[in-house]
Amino acid sequence: MELWEKSETVDPEVRAYVYSLVNVVGGSSAYDDTYSIGDDALAALNDILRWLRLYDEKLNRYDVKRCLAEANLVQGDLLEILALWPETATDNKLRGKLALACIQLLVPLTWPLDLEDEKATVNHHRHLPYLQLAQVGYKRAVLHYEHAAILRTAVRVALPSMTQPRRERSKRDEGIIKLVMYLFRNVAMITQPQMLPSQGDENEISRSSTIDVFHEQDVLNLLLTIGSGASDDFQDEDVVLLEILFHLLKGIDPKKLFMHDEQVQHHEADELRMLMQKERDMHKSYRKHAPSRHNRFGTMLWVKRGDEKLSTVTGQTSITNGDATLQIMDASKKWNKPKHHGKHAGLEELRQADFCQRIDLTETARKHLRSFVEDFLDSGFNPLFSGLRKAIASEADRISPTHQRHYFYLISWFLAAERARRTATTFTPPPTSAGEESTYAYIAAVLDDHTFALISRSMQRYLDEKSWLDLHTTLLAFTSILLTVHDMSESPDEEDQEIAENIQNRIFYHEATHDRIVQILRSYNNQGLPYLDAVTECVHVFVRMLERYSKQNAELQIQSKRRARKKARKAGVMPNEDDQEADNEDAREAQLTATERRFDFARFSSKLLTQPCLNTFLALLQYHADLTPEQLKRCHRYLYRLAFKHDLAILLFRVDILLLLHKLVKGPGGLSTESPAFQDWDTLVRQVFRRCVRWMEKETEGEGWKEMCVVEMLFSKIPASVYYLQNGIERTVERR
Amino acid sequence: PQIKDVDEEIKVRKKRAPNPKLDDNLLLSSNGLPRLRRIAKSKLKFRGKGHECSDIGRLLNTYQLWLDDLYPKAKFKDALAMVEKLGHSKRMQVTRKAWIDATKPNRRDDSP
């Protein structure tokens, strides 16, 4: 069946009814381009809405929607009617009513369609592709309607209701505001479905053009208004706003958003250079082993192995290069180890998590979005996010699991944006009226105890429920908070330092958090690269922060104590006493806490350096061809810490790990020798190899050390025997 | 179902020979770990300092050839993963422990 053909499967009577209603709404003139509204248009529109509700929704079908899409209601009628409500005629009651009726229809028509496994029927599967494409058409028409600004008209519909204070608003007013917000959300959300044929208009409905239109038609301003009133006037709209923000911002790199134009160009040029370099390296490593003669040259080779055995290999590369011979032997094997599928339901969903997809913006869209994000951070962020936090904590009805996911994702996104704003521009916070407020006050709503508790709780729950996608977003949020706290601790403002120190204190002494982090790292099992990246980044940042904190010299603590005393004295709580003596006291105490912290950190760090944790980092390293320098660095730091700082190189002496390391440095398809990270890796790998050889050749008193090593290298080590394997002697347990 | 001619000769289908499995029996057979130990004792030599990469490369090749003899079907990486998994079984753990203990100098004294 042709895709755009009329569906034969809708009941003809239903189709006839719907079509006749659409005809009643109005029509375009035959000799000029004017549109005239039908006499009973309002009633007809309401009837169509009733059809949608009483037929489609009640019977759980998509029939009416399909008919409406075929009858071209949106482009042919609704948008025309909306365009006929000019800005000068705001007080035209009938036109206002008609506009509202149009929007009431637009919202269900653009509502996201999804197939829930239990509820989906054959009918849904039949109509879905057609409707998805139709929605793309709706979005394009709404955004780029030539005669009028449709979205601005929608804003105007909501304005009278919005101007009323919240207490005096009727149910209907609330409904109208939400309706308009949902329209924006739907428009922001619709994208070209991947599996369906495209109409060649991706640019017209892309994120950039959505942002541009949102800016031109004042939708962004409306969002700012709602955001800044999220704590009082617009409490109930917060989740819709959250969704709109999520669909506008997901996948956009906050760092890039705050770069200057030249910087962006520079960045993109760098990226291109890097990609070209990568391609060159790929070709180079291929050419190294490529045949130097034509493909029917027909070289054949015997490989003599022990026990009078011979293997044959073909191809010229194998003549000179022994390693290549073995690789060809291996590659020619047909059988593959069967992989487990279906054990992780929802894995597919995770792979295509929509916020992992990278989105690039055009220059204008970037400019508009940047000014929006800046304004939002300054005015709307705190009210919105503190309100949402309360709603989530009290399990309000309007919060669904997806909202929580959006909430955590947006925390990480906005914190990253704030950091980018601080570093990219020479940002000076406008002087606050109170004067005492911290410069981090704009994002304070997510740095308090409650949010921290919420994140911890959610993390634990998602981990227990194994809902990886949700865990992923909480990890992102947690990492972002850690990074922000780190920046805060280096702020010149004493106030900020103190807050940061308090937060760090809390994290440092909270053993449950440490254990959870370790547990999450251990429990990685094939959830895909984006998740793996989030987990390892979180661990990396967490460890670095704790390390720095535990190393914080006594001097700093004395300073902070002195500061606290000065403050207390100012407040008149503490009597004046001899400063010298107090300082001495402080120094002693600081010394004590410093050693205590060092000990605590060592304990935590050793929890991280176990075989399962190592396996997770190795899983990341398996992707080395796709990793960024930063991610490679992360792996490098971890391996370095494991092998040399904590002397656990024994965990690396496993054949598959050695194979991977060998490939990184030597093998075909390894790291590029020209990449900056190569030197580091080369040194590390050589050191590990040296230790491995030395370990195997260790002189021991007993028999068969080398044989034992060769066998042990095939397996993960048994924890009880690690110490002996490493040192060649039993751990001496002191007895009293 | 129809009853067929009773006198018809019953055809016996020859059963397919089962595929050899890479399990702890195979791994502990004379071609498995014991052979690897023999190879390590007699043939595995290192050139030492300055030749780390080539030493480890040859070590890896040794493993590859050994696994190819033991279980020719699987690729090197796959075979390694399978063998590693076998190491978690009780039997393998006991065997490994015994080999580790064998290297200790005076084990008589440890277990009186």
Can you tell me about this structure?
The complex is a heterodimer of chains A (736) and B (112). Chain A is mainly alpha-helical and 736 residues long. In chain A, 64% of the residues lie in helices and 2% in strands. A two-stranded antiparallel ribbon of chain A has the order 1-2. In chain A, strand 1 and strand 2 (35-37) form a beta hairpin. In chain A, helix 11 (238-249) packs across helix 19 (401-424) and helix 24 packs across helix 27 (611-622). The longest helix of chain A is centred in the last third of the chain and has 30 residues, at 579-608. Chain B has helices at 24-28, 33-42, 52-70, 76-86, 90-102, 107-110. The mean pLDDT of chain B is 84. The interface between A and B is large, with 52 and 50 residues.
Described by strand count, sense and barrel closure, the largest sheet of chain B is: none
Radius of gyration computed on alpha carbons of chain A:
32 Å
Number of H/I helices of chain A: 32
Protein structure class of chain A:
mainly alpha
Taking strands numbered 1, 2, ... along the chain, how are they ordered across the largest sheet of chain A?
A: 1-2
